[in-house]
Each structure stands twice: as C-alpha cells, then as structure tokens.
Amino acid sequence: MRRTAPMLLRHLSSDSVDSVRVGRAVTRLRNGGDFKPVGALATLPPRLGATLEWLCQKDALGQDALLICAPAERARARRAAFAFAELVNAEAYYVGVSPDTAEADLRQRRELTGGGSAAWSDAAPVRAALAGGVLILDGLERAERNVLPTLNNLLENRELALDDGRRLVPEWRLAQLREEVDVPLLPVPQTFRVIALASPAPPFTGRALDPPLRSRLQAHVVPSFDVDELPPHEDLAAACAALLEIERNNAVAAAASRSSDTTFAFSGTAIKRVARHASDARAVLERCYPPLAGRYLLGKAVSKDAVEAVDRVLGAPAADEGAGRADGALWLSATQSRALAAAQSDLKNGEHVALVGPAGGGKSIMAARVAPAAARLQTCHKDLTARDLLQSRATDPATGASTWRDGPIIEAMRAGSSVILDGAHRLQRGVLAAALSRALHDGIVDLPDGSRLEAAEGFRVVAVAEPGAWLGDGDVAACFSSHAVPEWADDDIEAALAHLVPGCDARALAAVARRSREDGDAATRLSIRSLLRVARRLAAGEADVKPLVEEALMAAFLPRRLRDKVDDWFASSSDEEVEATAAWTVAGEDVSVVARRDGATAATVAMRGRGRAPELVPSLPNYVPTRAAEAAVAALVQLEAAGERAVLVLGNQGVGKNVAVDRYLSLCGAEREYSQLHRDSTVSSLTATPTLEDGILRHEDAPLVRAALHGRVCVLDEADKAPTEVTVLLKALVADGVLPLPDGRILRVGDNVHADFRLVVLANRPGYPFHGNALFRECGDAFAGLVVDNPDVDSEVALLEDVAPSRPHDERRRLACAFAELRARHETGSLAYPFSMRECAAVARHLELYGSEDEGVGDALANVLAHDAYAPQRAMVAAVFEAHGFEGVADKLQRKLDGIVPSMAYDVEYTSIKGSGGASVPRTGLSAPKFGKVDPSGNPHVGGNTWAGGSGGSDTAGLGGRGGPYRLWDGKHVPHQVSDEAKAEVSEAARAEGRRQAQIAHKKRLEEIEGMTENEWDTYKGMLDRIAPHVASLREQLGAAKDRKSERTWLRRRSDGELDDDRLVDGAAGERLVFKRRGKPDPLDRKPTEEDEFRKRTLLFLVDVSGSMYRFQMMDGRLARMLEATMLVMEALEGLEGKYEYAIRGHSGESDGVEFVEFGQPPSNRGERLKVLQRMVAHSQFCDTGDRTIEATRRAISDVSARGFVDDEEERKHLVVALSDANFSRYGLDPRWWAEALSDSDAVDAHAVMVGSIADEASLVAGALPRGRGHVCFDADELPVVFKRILQHARIIDDGEEM
Fold it and tell me: How many Å from the N-terminal Cα to the C-terminal Cα in the chain?
C-alpha cells in the first residue's frame, strides 16, 4: 500500500521568525492571540499539504479563499482552514452558517446593559476583521438568499459600516481618512483573511452561491479522502475504494442532471476515526455509511450498488442469529442487543452515537441505557435554530441586562457529561451541522455570546431519531457512529411480552403483531409502545384483544382497505357485536366513580378532593346520558383505572368528545386546565410564554405546565390543528417523562410533575374533509387512544327527545335515521361532508321552536344545507330525507334558497338491455365484407347478409356475426352470436378486406367527431348531470389534497410581520429581525417555477377500448361505465393542472397505447372532452380483436416511472389506473401476469379496475392481483367510491392513513 509523504514545513530565519514557507509558498506570520487554534496542524492529513500550500499562496496574494468539498468531508476542509490559521499564528473566528443565519450574526447585535440602555456587541466577522485574524465561514450553501451579501464590501474593500456608527476601513487608509471625516474609524489589518467552506449545489443539497460573492473568493477543491489514510486493514481499504468510486460517479451524474437528491454520505474522516477502535470492516462501514443500512437509517431503499460493492469485498453479511434476552426493564432482540453493546462501546471509545429506529421502538429506553444516568436531555423540534441549540437569550432578574442561557448541550460540554438529542430528525436541514459539527468533531464550539468553549473530558452526544433524509446529509452522518435500532424480531415478540407484562395473553397478541408487520402498511403496524400498552390492559383483566388493538390503531378511522386487514387478523368479529349492544352507565358513588356494563361493575376510580380552584371543575347541567355518551365516559373511567395518564380522544366534529371529557372530570371533581390549539400555536404558547415586564424577561406558565405542577387535568382541544413540531413535544412528557421549558426549567415525572397530573388531547379524525395535521402518526402511540364515533340511532333519538320534546317521536326517529344514512354515504365516498349529531340536533332545535306544517324540515334543513347551496350533493341529501318520509324537502329547499343557488339539474335515467339473444346459425354463405343496407323500419335482422346493424349473420357490419368489416349496433335489439367454428370459416383475404374497410370508416368517424352538434352536447350533458355530484366531491378532495412541503409555515427572523415571542430580548435590544410571518419555505436549490413542476403528481388512466367493450355494452353497460369513468376523471381534474399532470391512454387488441389525452395537454373545454369520449367509442367499434391489457399496463408503468421525481421520504408515488373488462380467458391470459405487471415499479402505485365480466371472471382476476390493487365495478354509482379508494391508496387524497 502506498503512503503519502509527510508535509515539510520550514520557518525562514532562525533569529527573528516572521514568515513561514510551505512548499513554494511563503507568507507572513501573525501575532497570535486567545483565539489562535492549537492542534489542527498536527492532525492534518498529509494529503492536505497541497491545500495548506494553496492557502499560503492566496494569503501572500491578499486573496480570500473558498474550500470546496463534499458535505461528508467538511471536517477535512475545516481542519485545513484551522491548520492554516495555526500555521501563520493567527486567531481564527468561526461562523457555522445555517438557514437562520441573519445580519446580526454577521455584523453586530444589541445587548441590554440594564437601566434601560443598550450597547452593541460585535459579531465574529467584525471581531476577526479588527484582530486581523482569519474568519472561517462554514457552510455557505446553507444560508438563505441575500444574507451573505452583507459581507461583500468587507471582502472586496475591507470596509464595513457598523450599526453603532463606527466604520471599518483598511489599515492603510486610516491615517488619510481620520483627517477628513468625523466618523469613528477602525482599522482592518492587512492580515485579515476570509476562508469559506462550501459544497457545490448541485450535486449536493443547498443553494448555489450568489455570483457577486462567488467572484470575490478564490476556489480550491480539497483533496478527497484516500484509503492510504486508513489504519492497516486491506478489506476495509478495498471496500472504501469501491464506495468512493460509486460516490464520484453519482456526483458526476447528479451534477449533469442538475439534481440534488442523491445521497452522498461517505466520510473518510468518520471511517478513519471509528476504525481506530472497531476492527471489523463491515461494522465500521455500517456505522459510518448510512446508505448501506438503507431503510433502517435513511427511511428508503438501500443503495444496491453500495451493498453489492461491499459484499464483493467482504462477502455477504452473516444472518442475525440468537434469541432475544431480558435486560432489566428491557427486552432486546439479538439485533438490538448487538446495537446496544456496539453503541456503549463506541461511547466509551469517544464516539458520539446516533440511535435510529421507528417510532415507539424503544430508542429512548436504549439511549438512557447507553448514556450515563446524569445525561441531560435536549428535545428537538422544527422551530429550533442553530443558535437555540447552543444558547438562548434571557435577562438578568436583578438588572434587566441581557444574558445568554446555556442549553443542555453546552451544559454537558462544560460538565464533561452526556446529552441525549431526542428527535434529531425533526430539526430543519442544516441546523444540526451548523450548530454542532465542529463541537462533535473537534470538541470546540464558538458560542453566540462571543466566547469559545472547549468540551470537558467525557462530553458525549447520543442522538435519538427516526430514519430519514436528515442522516443522508453527509456532514451530519460524519459526526456520529450510527446504529440502527429495529423493532423486536418476530420470534421475540411473544417471549418479550410475557417477560415485560406477566399475565397478558402474550401468544394471541404476538400473533396479531406479526400479522401487522406482514401486511406492510405503516398505519396498521403496532409499535412496541402500543404492544406494551395493549398487553398491560390485558393483564389488568380486559379479556378481548381485538377492541384493544383497534383502539391502539384508531382503526375506526382507517380507510376501508386497512380496516379490512385489521379484521382479517382476528378469527371473528363477535367482540365488536358485544360492544355494540352493551349498555354502559357511569355514576358517582360516595368517594368513587363507577362504570358499569350491563349492570356489572367494570371499572372504579377515586374522586378527587376539593382543590384550590373549584371554578376549574367542569359543570354540565344539560348533559343527556345517552347510551353513546355514557359509553364514552365509561371508556375514560376504564383508561384511568388501567393506569393511563395521557389519553388521545379522536372523533368527527359534533359527536360529543368535549362533553364526554367534561362529564368525566365533573364526576371526578377534577380541576381542568383548558387550551385550544390552532395553526399559530407555538412551543412557547404550549409551555411557557415569554413576556417583558419592566425590561426583564419573564415566562408565564401555559395551561399544560400549570396542570403538571398543580396536579390538574390539562385538556388540549383541536390538537390536530397545531403544527406537529409543536404537539410532538407532548411525546417527550408522556413517553419519556421529561419536558424542557423555554425558561430553562425541566418538568420531570416523579420529581416536580404532580402525581395527579393527567393529559387529555382532543382531535378531529384524520383525513378529508378535516384539515388537521398528522398528529397520530407523529406521537399517537405515546397516548392511550379513545375513539368517539357517531352515535347509534337510539342514542341520537334520546338526544333529540331532550332537544325537541314536543315533536312527534316518529319524526325524531326518522330524522335520526336520515342523518345516519348521510353519514353512511360519507363513509362510502358518495358525500364529501360528514354530517354530525351537532347538525341533527340543530335541525331538531329549529323544528321545536319554529317548525310548522308549511315549512317543517325543509325550513330547518336550509340552515344546515346552505353551506352547499351551489353543490350538486344537495339533491342527494334532499332525496335521503324524502326517502325517510319527509316529503317535498327538495322543493322546500329550492324555495328557501331561491335566488341563491342555480336551478337544480334534472335527473337522467340510463337503461340498458340485459342478457343475450342466444346463438345464431348463419343462413347464407360468406362473400366479401360490406357495410350493408340500412332498414328504415328498424326491424331486427338475424343470420342474414343484407342489412347493416343486424346480428349473427355474415359479411355486414353488425354484432355477433362473422366476416363483417366492423361492429355496429342498431341500439334496440338483443344481438345473437355465431359460433367460433363459423367465424373460423372466414378467409384471410376477407379478414384483410374487412380490416381495410374498418380503418377507412374509423378515419371518417374521427373526422366527423371534430364537429359537435347540439344533440351531441345534450348527450354529454345527460351523462354529466348523472355524475355531477361525484365530480364535485372528487374535485373537492383532489383540490384539497395535501402536499405538506408546499404548505405555508412561519418564516422567522423577518423585518416585518408579527412579533416572535422567542425574540423578545432581541427586540427589546433593538434588533430588527424579530418578526415572523406566514409564507412558503424557500426551496434550497430550485427555482420557484421548477419547484411547482417538481411536485406535480403524474396520473395515467388506461381505458379499455377493445372490441368487447362495444360488443357487450348492451348486455351490462360496460362501455357506458368506461365513458363515465373517463368523464369523471377529466371533469374532476379540470383546473387542477398545477397539482396534477394526467394522461388518458387506450388499449385494445390493436394497440397497447392509443393516446386520447397526452401529458400536459388536457382537454380545455367540454367540447374537447366529448371528442375524447367519441374517439374512445369509435376505436372500440372499429378496432381489431384481441387483448393487450398486460402489455399496455407494463408500458404505462414504465412511461410514468420515467417521468421524474418521487419523494421517497413521504412515499409520494405516481399513479396508473388500468380499466379493463377482464376478458382474459378468451385470449389465454393468466391474471398472474397482470399481477406481475402491476408491481413492476416501486415508484408507481398501479391499480386495476374491472368494469365488465363474463360470468365471474372479473372477481377471479381481481383475486389474483396484489391486495388492494384489484377492484370490480359493475355499477356506475360505485365508480367514485372505487376511484376514491385508489387515490387514497396512492396517498393522493387524505384517507386517515396519515393520522
């Protein structure tokens, strides 16, 4: 193995040393100072000698430098910059650039000095300039646009006007200018230099440098890591060489495609560091190169090239062997046990460790085992800035002077202890690297207060995070030794549950857990935390596994396809039936609250004594004890009795969630601290809100903190409306028992958190039409779940009796039944709005006071339905009420809303002739294909060869015959079918002639389609009126579909907007950038127009236009369904071109790709959409026989997957929907071939819809397809439901899967 020669450094002159030579470069020495680095030169890799020589050359020329490197090798470039400063005896001032870096971080910041006065504090660039030192700007590509130009004049002319009135000028101009100006001038010595570090974007993630800034910096590519730098280990060196080659190729390819999405994480610095104490080559690579672990660390598929390259050198990895084991309060699988031992060893050997695994998988418990008992905790969330991770602003309680408060990380650095960085994946990209990269690599950090801190011996960071792109940032991955912490192995679940929760039905629960993993859906996967909660409930005496599992998954709000999966896990649904018929009652008795089921005591909890604030105890004088309401209250009693201290209550609007909670608290005599969350809720408003009183910063406790300290019940309402980066902090308190507060205090369960503290979080169900965030997905498994569903009819009738006692009982029941049907239609997708008990009660209340014979329900319903005054669904709602005996509702609503809404569309009824006319024996021989004569009488013609439009005959255009040029139906009579033997008698010449005539007729028909008559418009309008409600519903959902990356968020550190509570001290000190406002996040590396195109979802609809669609239309209406499906797609996607790009392509025996609508060219009006439908009919009528469904599916998936970006992190996929009449057996096609085609690409969610069938063939085909991908639709009214199910599966519209 070759070795690089060591660097030779020589000082000139032995008497008075004033310069240094590196290679051919000679430059001057400086005078040193407190900020001169020490030790960087001694540890500089020999390969960086060339970089050191180049920096000396630039210094001699008086030029500023830019060191370019991959993010994973940032530590090498930084080491070279500090080594240069040490070499020339200069002070080095460091700025870690982040997205939050602002002008105050680059020039001056105001500080309060007490007594109402303020002073300016110089930032690092100013101090570096005044000292004639070296300013190191690390991470230029992370900065937001137009921030770094603040330094342009300092770079160009060594001049900078400061906010305190002083002015920096070059040292050589000082004497001249002092005589001419009165402004205080400060000299910038000629020794001042700037060394910037950056990674080019693309291929790396970040922003390209602004040309004025780039042109002022001389650039140099830092030599990359070489395997010669490794400790002697041939296998490791060979594997690293292979990975380096792969990354170089990826970088070139990414730069050529202008992409920044490829993961670059190879860090020679990290590998060399870990290899000193880890002898196994594979273990070293898995710790330092996340792409090898793939989904376990990055949340996406492994890099196949990297895995294959490493396996070629090191051989295939050994399979995990060994059973799990108990370890105190832990149960560790074999993999987890090895990960724990490796992490503990790494920490002992001086490494900082990252534990990465799924939510609820036991990472926090393992982190507590890895880190010493005295470890501090830093809870991470999206709003944390790089500065906040280190220090936060505060004021001196005595003087009001501004101070800096150390965060947990800095406290640990000073004390030489460990700190757990919980939720590191939630930090904004670039924040972790900017704040901690130097601290983790070198043990040194430059603090916001201007001081420099060297970590005490023993400082370690244990990062706890979920898999994701955060670890794909090379500069972050290089800081840690990363360990994947997967969930328990399947074989360990039963033994683990039996050990940790004695007395539970471990076998039954383990079987359910394995099924949840086998199904592969994240929404139905039971985390370890959820399994343990269910196990504890079983051990406490609850006998039924199914309702507990459904509660843990909030299964009632999962999409139907996932609810069906959960049902399949259990042998029967008898438990559910028992629950539905159980009668619950809850009452206070003596000093207890007792919940009874069918008269038998089910749970008992103690009442609370009279507290200090009785006004906080809820009172419900109008509570109606319906069966549904009592069941919800009883569930809360059961959860308290089972030891649950935090409950998440989910349900539709208006179902009584708040009523159930308040009733429970009222019975218990519990004091309630209430807070309603919303879009603008912040970490401060949730915990402790900062205020300035007489110039002193104080914090006012929020309801959550007051409840925790005083033993009350905190009720957080509408929690799904708050940003998830805020509500996720609740997980720290509930699951980990620790919650750091903004003022430096820490809430700790078992310490200052009162034993009687309880937390109840209320939220609406997930999915459309609710607009909430993914609360349950982010932290739901930390809570015990309670679903409050819509009430049963009897419960609703009981409530209406209280609301409208004078109305007839029959009317109240019919009203309740009507609303129950509306809710059922919402569940199936027919109605977009989920009508609730609240609307039902409002109608009854109106009837009670203002109902009359003339107006009745129509008048009352107008108050509820006016929201949908212009929506087609209003007619459907009115029809439901009329079906339940409320006659004339539609007319009454029309009169009530007359002048507000357009006229109601009239109903169009479609009829079709069912069945077949039977077999036909041709009565004539075969001659040549021809069109035939048209019979003006319209009589049926069977078996002949004279008339066009007949059936079962020869030579003429018709149906069911032989030898004719193309299909033609007279629109009236049932066709007869000749046998296949008779068809075989047609000569090849006759077939060719028939095909020629069909092509001519097809071309003529296409020419005719270009015109649109009034009758044709009436035809289109008739179809449109039939599906108009479904179009409106689907368009509404597609329009509301969430692309979370494009949602507006709070943009902080702005010069205008609303005052940011977290910047009060800065504002009091006079800083300008202390506001926040709503806006779209600035994309890192794309132009805004490119960003918009970047996020479009690609949808391709394959429609069946084969001959059988035309042939069997009169039997089962399959062609009409195909046309309505196509119309539904085109109408629903109109005006949504900014979100979706779609195409409609046909397939038949003649072609696997007939373009009806091309990508980027949607039909612009209904005339063009009608032409699409007409061309579909024409193709089906004139095309050749055969079936190319499978070829068309493969081609469609291939074309769509090649169209660009798919967001792996959010699992956003393109969509292909293939519609067919499942005529497979006739052409010898195996459904399994279609199943394989539908699974061709991981980037495409492909579905098949059968709209027609001979016998039960469609069901057989659907059964052979991948689960959830095959759909059967023989009724046009089912089409919207099927389409909604498909769009939910593809995560295009919300379905509750992102709870």
Answer: 55
